Amino acid sequence: MSDDSTQMADESIAASNPNPDDGQFTLVTYTYCVGGVFYAFLCGPAIGRRGYPPIDPAWMAVTFLWVVPVLLSATIDTRPFRQRLHDLAIYCVATAFIDAATFGGTVPRHVTFLGTLIDTVILFGPLHLVVGTILDGFVQLIRSMARFAAYTLPPTVRSATPWLAFAALLALAGAFPFVFRAYSFAELAHRGRTQAEKDWNDQCAQVYVDWSDPFKYAGDSTLINEYDRTTGLKKSHRHRETQYVEAYNERIAELLREHGIPDWSMKDHLVDASDLIGMLDSAEMDPIEQFPYEINENIILFRRGTISRWGGTMSSSDDGLSIGTKASLVGVGNDKKPVSIGRLVKYPDVVFIRNGDDWVGAFHESGRELSSATRR
Length: 376
Fold this sequence. Notes:
Blueprint: H1 2-14, H2 20-42, H3 44-48, H4 57-61, H5 67-76, H6 81-101, H7 113-149, H8 155-201, E1 206-209, E2 215-218, E3 221-225, E4 234-237, H9 242-259, H10 273-278, E5 286-288, E6 293-296, E7 299-302, E8 305-309, E9 312-316, E10 321-325, E11 329-332, E12 339-344, E13 347-355, E14 359-364, E15 369-375
Parallel strand pairs: 1-4
Antiparallel strand pairs: 2-3, 3-15, 5-12, 6-7, 7-10, 8-9, 10-11, 12-13, 13-14, 14-15
Helix pairs in contact: 1-8, 2-5, 2-6, 5-7, 5-8, 6-7, 8-9
């Protein structure tokens, strides 16, 4: 009974073609050719991407769609594996070259023919051949099992089954990039909210802002505010994916509404713009003659050379002012200029550091840079 059902299924597929092998060869070749060209077109954005900022996840998802023509052809191709292998191998190698061109790399990415060819030979070519062969064999196994299971169905239904599978695969392939995109965005948002809660608990929460946000202008000076004046939280540029940033900021806003401005924020220590600019010309600053100079346990000033502090080292290769803190290393210019420090009664926990007469920075006692002003 099994042999009869298998023969009936094969005959029903080939009934409309007196030479089914020729028809299948033409259709399978067409599937591989059209699929390969379409795959190359869809991979264009992934090949041409800079590496950062990241492109839409849907364009990265399409790089996996090279398997679709393999699956499609296997659903309608009943020829022996040896006859199928030639077309399959050519297609796998061709798409491997395209896939290799989308491969990672440094930022900015530089795609070269030689580099892509090497990646194809070493990694992507063998990978595509192995995966393509496995998928083809898997689909053929499913076809064989389906033929035995469907022997009681009418011939018209049996003959339509491969084409229904063909259509279903096309629909799934079309939906995959969008499903992957939605999943990626949801995952980024989840990570953003989770990180926001962790940073809040660790007392290092921040707010993501546009690149131009920290820069303000007053008279002939440019001001850079490292902290948000409303919340006192550290500003960070939007260098992450939009969904991550928006979810992070949203969760921080929720926590601020629930708990208010936390005690560990820098809001009460932020310096007014007029006071900061005034320190550029203040005569009450004390000059620093010897370097390195330790202002407190969290801030040290030095010039050319290397210092060891806080379990690590900090280095400078020029005579410009370097401000080493427990939080960061701040370099101010490359030339040697007079350095002075000072304080204002209004800001008891803030130390002002001036380099020449064109830069001054405000630092919290903990070493965190609050703001700076540069005379243009």
